[in-house]
Amino acid sequence: MEKILIAIEVESKEALFDVKAEISEKNLYVLPREELLAEIELYNLGGIGKIDVNLEYIIKNEQNEVIIFDIETVAVETQANFLKKFEIPDDIKLGKYIFYVKATYNGKTASASAWFSVGKIPFWSIEKISLVIFLIVIIIIFSFLVYEIRKIKKLLKPRISERTLIKRGLIKIKKR
Length: 176
Description:
By secondary structure, this protein is α+β, with helices and mostly antiparallel strands. The protein has helices spanning 126-156, 162-167, and strands at residues 17-22, 29-30, 35-44, 51-61, 66-76, 79-87, 95-105, 108-118. The chain folds into two domains: 17-118, Sandwich (Immunoglobulin-like); 126-167. The chain has two helices and eight strands, in the order E-E-E-E-E-E-E-E-H-H. The chain is elongated, with a radius of gyration of 33 Å.
């Protein structure tokens, strides 16, 4: 049975800002004691000038247990982009985790999340499997083409040797 991981993000109906969280592809797999880098983007949609937004950062495991919790306040005029670093604990279990950021201003909330894994990059990722299948198809096509070209060359080769033609008198050799 395969688990499908989902995240539900709750936002206020009339949010004055939006938040986006991304984990780059090279950071989707981290090991204990390594740093997780998350890119955070905040957008002030209300056009009300510079506002101080309270941010909560939470990293949870699949059992919804909080592994890391951090809070900070960020000033946002129109947009703010920054990287947030988290040191993954050395006693963390290998598996899937969710990074969640919740932005609050004036009682309004916006949130975003991104999944990542603690552990080694799997050897057979979807990208690698796709590449292997693509290469196998190319090799099969190439082999088929080589086989067909050889078959055509055999058909084009003369079936009667020059010696046979001489014996039948179809070719005459001039003597010097």
